[in-house]
Amino acid sequence: MSDLLTTTAVGTHQARLDGPAKVRGLAPYAYEHPFDDPLFLYPLQAKIARGQAAHIDPSAAEAAEGVVHVLTHDNAPELADTDDGELAILRSAEIGFRGQYLGAVIATTPEQARHAASLIEITYAQDDHDVELREDHPASREPESGSGDDVRTGNVDTALAEAAVSIDERYSTPMEHNNPMEPHTTVALRDGDELTLWTSTQGVHPARATLAPILGVEQEKIRIISPHVGGGFGSKGLPHADMMLTALAAQAVPGRPVKYAVTRQQMFSITGYRAPTLQHIRLGARTDGTLTAFAYDAISMSSQTKEFPEESTKPGRMMYAGDNRRLTQRVVPLDVPVPSWMRAPGEASGMVGLEIAMDELAVAAGIDPIELRVRNDPTTDPDTGLPFNQRRLIDCLREGADRFGWEKRNPQPRARQENGWFVGMGVASATYPASRQPGSVARIRRTPEGFEVSIGAADLGTGTWTVLSQTAADALGVPIGQVDLRIGDTALPNATVAGGSTGLASWSTAIVTAAQELRSEHGADPAIGAEAHGEAEANPAAEKFALHSFGAHFAEVRIQPTTGEIRLRRMFGMFSAGRIVNPTTARSQLIGGMTMGVGMALHEKGELDPRFGHVVNHDLAEYHVPVNADITDIEADWLDEKDPQAGPLGARGVGEIGIVGAAAAIANAAFNATGVRVRDLPIFGDAFLPT
Amino acid sequence: MNPFDYERAADAAGAVSTVTDRPDAVFLAGGTNLVDHLKLGVAEPDLVVDINRLELTEVEALDDGGLRIGAMVRNSDAAADPRIRRDYPLLARALLSGASGQLRNAATMGGNLLQRTRCVYFQDTSTPCNKREPGAGCSAIGGYTRYHAILGASADCVATHPSDMAVALTALDATVVVLGATGERRISVTELHRLPGDRPEQDTVLEHGELITALELPPPRPGASTYRKIRDRASYAFALVSVAARVDVDTAGHAPVIREAAIALGGVAHKPWRARAAEAVLRGAEPTAETFLAAADAELEAAEPLDGNRFKVPMTRGAISSVLAELTGVPEALPESTTEDTHE
Question: Any catalytic annotation for residue A656?
């Protein structure tokens, strides 16, 4: 257990320090940094899902006005490492998915580049493709990059057969696409043997560490700058092929900056997505609802080009008790774009199936769904056997129920009608690991005005600028105005990625450590110019405790029985996330996650056309996310607590937990409203209409 | 985006003449649809004639008690016009249920009528589409058809017309005023858009170079009217199904009788769909929940849903009966309980 920081700024409402610059348009996003004489890139993308680009004829594009260079596999720079199938682009004529980059046109205006790209003749040799995920797919296998082995404890089949109450159901989640407001953008400039990328990323140092060995360049020769990021939701966590393509283009036109903003349509095949999942869940319980059998078999789609498993079974490993357990995770690699991180990968999809299944078990057992979860709350982590840091799921459920007015819920479905709409309430649990990544370094330097605090962290619109300034202020014992924070640049000390809700815990630990070092090396009042470094180490508590956050979602929906329309009326989330560093930005994170959960429940579905192999509703008019009118009443709150196992702030990250379980709460509310159980997301109005 | 020439028209006749003389010229009004198509390669004109300076921006009373709306009146302005709000509330409602505030500020009345289908295959030049390239084939058939037609489609095209406003105008029996190279003509809005047949590339009966200059609304008719849009989210989504309806009930006698009904449907066909069969059932009938369902069923008898949009038949049935119930104050018929579990 580490000593908790004495706090003054931490824990208080602070408006975003970067807010005034953003609303005045003065905060430079990647594409907006001023450049002299830039060039613009437009990509060539495969129009088949499998086969070869047998011949690419660039001549018409090369002759077009404004074109400086046409990049294809015929002339692309060599790569030093081609193991990463997603990033090792332009190696050959082979095509692994529809939309794959086959090249790029570089021209003096974006319009010239786009037009010239359309002039390029590509002759394809098309092979049969397979993009359809199904449970009995012969290519189904254990993931190579999974986070755990199968779990087989006791005898699930016997326990299920003997269970007083059981359910055996199949659930599915669709292809979902991160759509941050700011698309993925990169400006790349090669100057001599140095490469600079102004890009939109969740981690400048991790992106550099990924790109450098592939490009065959020393890390020190690459600089990545990303002070502001217009949303990421995981899609900017790992560098995708767009960043590599722009970097390769810059190699081809040294001395000129090359600008590339991925279009919304291109994002659906280039920048990652949440892979669809199929989840088979069987639960067995005693008459009092306590679990005796827990079987969770999940499959996710993956890509032949590069594996990424959407591990739905992850939360099932630690969520509920039960002696006889079986968890299996499989992937089916198909001829599809490369899936990647999307807010709470694994937990978000897994807590759809599991939390609907728990609702079904509650109905089958005739027990209130909150009480069912209370009765199955384990005392130690079923996965590791370790004690939990603070498992306050029950507190979240009970406190949330009080605040939401759960006692007004009629457990009988289809029992409440208002103005012609059926109304129902649902609940679901939330969970997310509280991890800290080792390796972040902060540098603090005394200046005439105060303290310069430098760390290559990222602010995705989440509040990093603000909360790290609060943290530094308290660590140094000075007002927040004396902190001059620098982030988002590889020229600053190393920082780990803003992903997995680890950013705050990892970076703040480095800052607090650096402040301690500064004091111990230079005393309580360091001279101007004095500086110290501090590095975040792995959290030693992770050896002794299962570190998680928890929460409970409550949703009320209304459904129009004659037209099928389903609308969220109100939603409340109660969370246990350790100390909340900034209630203003934390609330935004939590209700933002919940809103994304609403999209998951009611709107989002990439329509992958199996004939063509690509997502055909690839823009924001056709791929729906919630709009303001869908989110009429949403609120989040948290238990007042500090987590002594979580590091010097006692805080756990809140970037992901808001989405986890949110969709299940809505699905369970829809069942309570209508008696119709929807197990395949999203829930469209069709489900409530007579066939 | 293909390179193209750009001209700004000074007057309507000049704009018509310029476009008529160039087979690949187009008019640019609000640009909310055309500019997307220019970027996507769906439209490849060699000349864009900007008509935004034309003085077609008045809403004027007509001698017969109707209203004339200039083609360049913005959707937001029309929706806020006090005469439209008072006398044609279903038009105001339809306008406000379309797109977003920003788009309505740019979109024009003439352009709204001429917006093209949002069929995803039409908008994606990497997939075949008969509407974009006659003879190429229809990718929607056998594909993603949630937003596609259940009425009046063909083997060549199953696209729908996306406008809300046009559905209201269809129920209102509006007239479109069109200027061509040889003069002005008037077309009933119900005759403006075509069914796809074997020429899906032709959205309307307009000839190349003809320009919509105004819409004319007949004098307001008696009865209650509204516009109801069923969609996958609460705003900024195209209609799965929409209903524009006006019902005039004679309550003077022993039992109430429907004197007249006008119904148009959106989201179900290649054009705003005037529901004449439903109207025929309603005319002279007593307004009851059973009557409303019978009217909806009469219209939907011809429905030919696709695998991806079978739900639209019960959804349209529910929407029609629900709107009629609302307009007449008759209690709505609830569908029988559907407590069966569903697997999509």
Answer: yes
